[in-house]
Amino acid sequence: MPFAVGRQRLLSLIPRFQGRRVVVAGDFVLDRFVYGHPKRVSREAPVLILRFWKEEMLPGGGGNTAANVRSLGGVPLPVGVVGADAEGRALREAFRSRGIDAGGLLEVAGYRTPTKTRILGGAAHGIKQQIVRYDVEEPLGNDAAREAQLRDRLAEAARGADGAILSDYGYGAIAPAAVAALRATLPEGARIFVDSRHRLAEFGGVDAATPNEEELAESAGVALDSDAALAKAGADLRERMRCACLLVTRGSRGMSLFSDSDAPVGIPVHGTDQVADVTGAGDTVLATFALALSAGASPLEAALLANFAGGVVVMKMGTAVVTPEELTTAVEADRALLS
Q: 35: which of 111, 133, 300, 336 is 20 to 30 A away, CA to CA?
């Protein structure tokens, strides 16, 4: 049964994303994609040899959230840490090429910028399949001077912002204490959103969170093997975090929205469940949800727009973004979700 949300209402919200200033604070990652065409099987080992085709360097982690805010018309204000290395420079260049001011990124000597390298292979005119991925990652150690610098940059970015997103991938660039710091600096009414890999419940007092089902299960400490288990885990987490709404992404099963109603609202996946690539889709959902709520959408309207955006981006290869035009087309073409 379609939701009682007007198509024109959703379409009217998308232009309101334009110019919204959103702090994006947390862990920034470089996503590196190396593409090749199959050459032969190696004589040295039973492995495929690829002839190098191209390489892409894209913002990942909180960087992908910032890139999606930018592609949707918003103005992301990144605050975080990069290393004084080639990967950190590549990440800054990826921001610069998108028109994103990377002045809030603190360069730390001796720190290696988290980098996820994916090797993909396939025929010259065919879809490239991911063969292997390797990660370069190390958590930031405790450093009072660095943490003070980050607090200053966070406060500077928050002044006059329309909202803030905290992206916690576990590398140590953002801490739950940032919530109180943002509350003290953001304009009245500006919302705070969080996506945390392993410590959702510690970010209490935010306005909304967008965990995936696996993260919700980890937080609850139980398997979400039924609708009842999912409903209880979501309600419990929302209460512990004291947040107005929780949007749980569930892959091919769509989303579950916990907000004002007693029971979660299930939102079926937009489009096909035969996706091309889910890399970074959660970042797209987070960026769209945050922009929509900041633009005056209700939680359900924001969740529907985020669902449409996620459905668009998973049909693209690699760490991708969605544009207002693509989001508009998805809303206009839908014949299943909207009344």
A: 111
